[in-house]
C-alpha cells in the first residue's frame, strides 16, 4: 500500500489503543509504512497481559500495591495478597473500580498452609497462575552487638523464607502448565552498603535481600526447562511506608538525593514498567536477572 503520512487524529487513535496516554500536539515528523506500523503494534502487544493471572504478595500497600495496579492495567487478573486483609481488599476494590478482575486474599507468607491456600484459591478462581510477584517484606534494624535471634528471624522469615515458600507453592502449578513468570522484589541493600549511614544495623535486611537475589538466580536455572523465568527487581530509595520515618530526617534525605544521579527518590509507580516488562512476553529471553531501579544510586 506504499508510504503514508498518518494524520494527527489517526495516529493518536492508534497510540491511544496501545496504552499511550498522551496528547500529540502535531503529527509525527516522519513517513511510516503500514508494515512498520504493524510491527510497532505487535511490539507493544508483547507487553499486554490479557488473559494472564498474577499473584502479588504484599499487594496491600507501597510497592506491592503499585505493581498490582500496573499488572491489572496491563490486562492481568490479580490476586492481591497481604497479611492485612483490609488493605488487600482496598486494592482489590480499586482494581475492580478501574474495570479489572481481582481477588483479595489474606495470607502470611511465612505460613506454609496459608501460602498453599493462596495459590489454590487463585487457581480455583481463574484456572491458572502465570505470574508471581513476591513483594511482601519487613525491616527491623539492630546493631550487631544488640541483635537478638528474634529480631534476626523476624526479618529473614518474611523477606527470604517467605519468598522461598511462595515460589515453592507457585512453581508446582507453573511446572504443570510449563510456563510462568516469577518476580522477586529484592533491594539495593542486598547489593551495596548505603553510603550515608542511614540504616545502621540493617544486617538482617541486607542479608535477606542478598539471599533473594542469589535464590532467584538458582531458581532461574532449575526452572528454565519448564518454561518458567525468574527475575529480581532491586529498588533503591523509594517513597514507601517502610522508608517514611527515615526520609523525614532532612539531613538523610538530602544525602540520598545528592548521591542519586537522577536527584530524586523513587516512587512506587517507578516499578510499574519494570514489573509489567518482566511479567510479559517482552522478557521471554530474560531470566536470572536483577533489574536495578534506583535512579543510578549504585553507579558510584
TrEMBL record:
GO terms for molecular function: oxidoreductase activity, acting on the CH-OH group of donors, NAD or NADP as acceptor. One of its GO terms (biological process) is carbohydrate metabolic process. The keyword NAD does not apply. SUPFAM superfamilies: NAD(P)-binding Rossmann-fold domains. Keywords: Oxidoreductase. Belongs to the short-chain dehydrogenases/reductases (SDR) family. This is Short-chain dehydrogenase. It comes from Aerophobetes bacterium.
Amino acid at each position: 500500500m506504499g508510504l503514508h503520512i498518518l494524520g494527527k487524529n489517526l495516529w493518536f487513535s492508534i497510540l491511544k489503543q496501545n496504552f499511550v496516554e498522551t496528547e500529540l500536539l502535531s503529527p509525527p515528523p516522519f513517513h511510516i509504512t503500514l508494515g512498520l506500523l504493524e510491527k510497532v503494534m505487535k511490539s507493544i502487544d508483547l507487553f499486554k497481559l490479557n488473559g494472564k493471572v498474577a499473584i502479588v504478595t504484599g499487594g496491600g500497600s507501597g510497592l506491592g500495591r503499585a505493581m498490582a495496579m500496573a499488572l491489572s492495567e496491563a490486562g492481568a487478573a490479580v490476586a492481591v495478597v497481604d497479611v492485612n486483609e483490609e488493605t488487600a481488599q482496598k486494592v482489590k476494590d480499586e482494581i475492580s473500580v478501574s474495570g479489572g478482575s481481582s481477588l483479595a486474599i489474606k495470607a502470611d507468607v511465612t505460613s506454609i498452609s496459608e501460602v498453599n491456600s493462596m495459590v489454590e484459591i487463585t487457581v480455583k478462581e481463574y484456572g491458572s497462575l502465570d505470574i508471581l510477584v513476591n513483594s511482601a517484606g519487613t525491616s527491623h534494624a539492630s546493631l550487631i552487638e544488640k541483635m537478638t535471634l528474634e529480631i534476626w528471624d523476624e526479618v529473614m522469615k518474611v523477606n527470604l523464607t517467605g519468598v522461598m515458600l511462595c515460589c515453592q507453592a507457585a512453581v508446582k502449578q507453573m511446572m504443570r502448565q510449563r510456563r510462568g513468570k516469577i518476580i522477586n522484589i529484592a533491594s539495593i541493600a542486598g547489593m551495596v552498603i548505603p553510603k550515608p549511614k542511614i540504616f545502621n544495623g540493617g544486617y538482617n535486611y541486607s542479608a535477606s535481600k542478598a539471599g533473594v537475589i542469589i535464590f532467584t538466580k538458582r531458581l532461574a536455572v532449575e526452572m528454565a526447562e519448564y518454561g518458567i523465568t525468574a527475575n529480581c527487581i532491586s529498588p533503591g530509595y523509594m517513597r514507601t511506608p517502610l522508608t517514611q520515618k527515615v526520609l523525614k530526617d532532612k539531613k538523610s534525605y538530602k544525602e540520598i538525593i545528592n548521591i542519586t544521579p537522577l536527584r530524586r527518590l523513587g516512587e512506587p509507580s517507578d516499578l510499574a514498567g519494570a514489573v509489567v516488562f518482566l511479567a510479559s512476553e517482552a522478557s521471554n529471553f530474560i531470566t536470572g536477572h536483577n533489574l536495578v531501579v534506583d535512579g543510578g544510586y549504585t553507579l558510584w
